[in-house]
Design brief:
It comes from Dipodomys ordii. By secondary structure, this protein is mainly beta. 6% of the residues lie in helices and 34% in strands. Strand 4 and strand 5 form a beta hairpin. The longest helix is centred in the C-terminal third of the chain and has 5 residues.
Length: 141
Amino acid sequence: MIYTDPTKRLELYFRPKDPYCHPVCANRFSTSSLLLRIRKRTRRRRGEQAAEACPEASFNMEILGIVSTIYKFQGMSDFQYLAVHTEEGDKHVSMYDKLLLLKPEKQAFFQRDVPLYIPPPIFSRLDTPVDYYYRPETQHR
């Protein structure tokens, strides 16, 4: 779907099932490149010591096609938030079953004690570094 629409960006989720995971986006670029398949075959000589054996390597290269479009991940990855609670003994416990509403729940689900977890209100709007030029404000007369 992303490939058919040239205006869309390709999104990569590090944890696809996590609703708090923020994607890394790739931009589309035109290119003229070749797709190669390179196979390396090694053959060890028999009868020699393992330390002295020099494997013989042969390479087989094959051109598979021409690449006209690539996607580059040029932006920075945003912070990734995990819903994890640390219990006694430094044991980490996932809180997703306590936080996510996957089905209609009864009132007892909402009144039970849950460790404090505050998800971020918003992720970063930009994925490329920006120079803010911190300067003192100019004073006008």
